[in-house]
Automatic annotation (TrEMBL):
It comes from the Eukaryota. This is N-acetyltransferase domain-containing protein. Residues 180-392 form the LYC1 C-terminal domain. Residues 115-173 form the N-acetyltransferase domain.
């Protein structure tokens, strides 16, 4: 009632700028209502019940468990009726993450970042400024949300816009580089496994993540040194919990779609100290009926020691890794393999392995966007390791 003519309806929620509206956290009984609204958009590969179960499960996995995830709701400050039921004007969630950043003196510090996801307005309430109000309130709220005191402040928040670059930029999240390499799937027979390459399972990840984190901090320090501390070089931690969040989400999806979970979560080539590896996850938006919605996403690519590894060794190793990724994509009904924002070095490897690929600059979907909470106005931010692992 009244949704087309909100001003004339006594039941219609107030204008989006009204002080009667607030950004708060939904109650446990409001959560399923929020997810039921977004199921057609984000859960078509699952039944409604499985989607509700997945969202509940995603509050129990690494990174988001124990309050790591916060659900947000834009609603009325006071319940409009004695039953206490509040309208769900807009909703989203944020996940607390470890982040690194460089200071003007060139040191690398650790802080808190928030990844924002699932921004949604009930179709009945769209176009009335509720998502805008939620985002402008949320951007400010997250500045101090779950901070770790003076030593571990909240330094930035990120999101991945599926509605282009304009909407979130208007509310303070600047769009960053959003490109990817895409390969088609290819059967294992067409992608023979090279010598010296091994697949990565759950139990290999902890060591790889620890090495990755050390190398990433060194890289940040190097970048700060290069520009004399001019820019803030920032990155989300490519830590074990961050990768497990993706893999356990993948487990839920594959269990429901295929009745089993994959073993191969990436591949690594070369001797310890001179390795190249990639970790990946399968994403299913289309399920088995619409495989165009399914992608095998490379979460993170690491070259352990560029300087001391012969180029042929890197090329051979990377080629074998891409071969395994393509074969996994084929087996697990993915439409393509995507690798986000490769570094110059990895882009060079992509060229040299001789496997046909497509390079895509995205301008509408998954636009990596960042709001910086640094103290100085106008600080220039360089988002390092802007790869899929940071997505949520
Ligand atoms: C995107 C969404 C959250 C906007 O909610 P809303 O409450 O209608 O937003 P507002 O009224 O505050 O603002 C609407 C603005 O969003 C823009 N917008 C909405 N959908 C858009 C789309 N698909 N592409 C580009 N811009 C879009 C409108 O053009 C408008 O821009 P304006 O501020 O310049 O006028 C809502 O349409 C929605 O829930 N969509 C489905 C889920 C989704 O795609 N979420 C975004 C994930 S990144």
């Amino acid at each position: 009632m009244g949704s087309n003519n909100p001003d004339s309806s006594p039941d219609s929620p107030p204008d989006s700028s009204s002080p009667l509206i607030t950004l708060t956290n939904p109650t446990p009984s409001e959560l399923p209502k929020i997810f039921t609204l977004s199921h057609p958009k984000w859960g078509p590969a699952l039944t409604l019940q499985d989607y509700l179960d997945r969202e509940a499960y995603l509050t129990t996995v690494p990174l988001s468990k124990n309050g790591g995830i916060t659900h947000w709701l834009l609603t009325l400050s006071s319940p409009p009726s004695p039953s206490g039921e509040r309208p769900i004007l807009a909703s989203c969630e944020s996940i607390k993450k470890r982040a690194f950043y460089t200071t003007p003196s060139g040191s690398v510090r650790e802080g808190v970042a928030h990844g924002i996801a699932s921004v949604f307005t009930d179709p009945e309430y769209r176009g009335r400024g509720y998502a805008s109000r939620m985002m402008s309130d949320l951007g400010q709220r997250l500045k101090t949300w779950q901070d770790g005191g003076e030593d571990r402040p909240v330094v930035f928040s990120v999101l991945y816009s599926d509605i282009g670059k304009g909407f979130y930029a208007k509310h303070g999240w600047a769009p960053f580089r959003s490109s990817h390499i895409s390969w088609t799937p290819s059967s294992a027979a067409e992608s023979p496994r090279g010598k010296g390459v091994k697949t990565i399972g759950y139990h290999e990840l902890a060591e790889l993540c620890a090495v990755d984190e050390r190398l990433l901090k060194e890289r940040l320090a190097g970048l700060a040194k290069e520009d004399g501390g001019k820019k803030r070089h920032v990155a989300l931690a490519p830590e074990l919990d961050q990768l497990l969040w993706h893999l356990m989400r993948e487990d839920f999806m594959t269990k429901h779609i295929f009745g089993r979970t994959p073993e191969v979560r990436g591949a690594v080539a070369g001797e310890k100290g001179r390795r190249v590896w990639a970790v990946w996850t399968r994403g299913y938006y289309g399920g088995l009926g619409k495989t165009e919605g399914n992608t095998l996403h490379v979460l993170r690519v690491v070259v352990e020691d560029e300087e001391n590894t012969a180029e042929e060794e890197l090329v051979e190793g990377f080629k074998a890794i891409v071969g395994i990724a393509r074969a996994e994509a084929d087996e697990w009904r993915s439409h393509d393999v995507q690798m986000w924002n490769p570094t110059g070095l990895v882009r060079g490897l992509v060229e040299k392995i001789g496997v046909e690929y497509e390079f895509v600059e995205r301008d509408k979907e998954s636009i990596a966007s960042l709001m910086w909470y640094g103290e100085e106005e106008g600080e220039e931010v360089d988002w390092v390791a802007n790869e899929k692992y940071a997505w949520c």
